[in-house]
Amino acid sequence: MRVLVAEDEKTLAGYIAEGLRESAMSVDLAHDGTTALEKLGIGCYDVVVLDRDLPGTHGDEICRHLVSAGGRTRVLMLTAMSDVRERIAGLRLGADDYLGKPFDFDELVARLDALARRPREAAPPVLRKADVVLDSAHRRVSRGGRYLSLTNKEFAVLAELLAAAGAVVSAEELLRSVWDENADPFTNAVRMTMHRLRSKLGEPGIIETLPGVGYRVVDPSC
Question: With CB atoms counted within 10 Å of each terminal CB, which end of the chain scores lower, N or C?
Answer without folding.
Answer: C
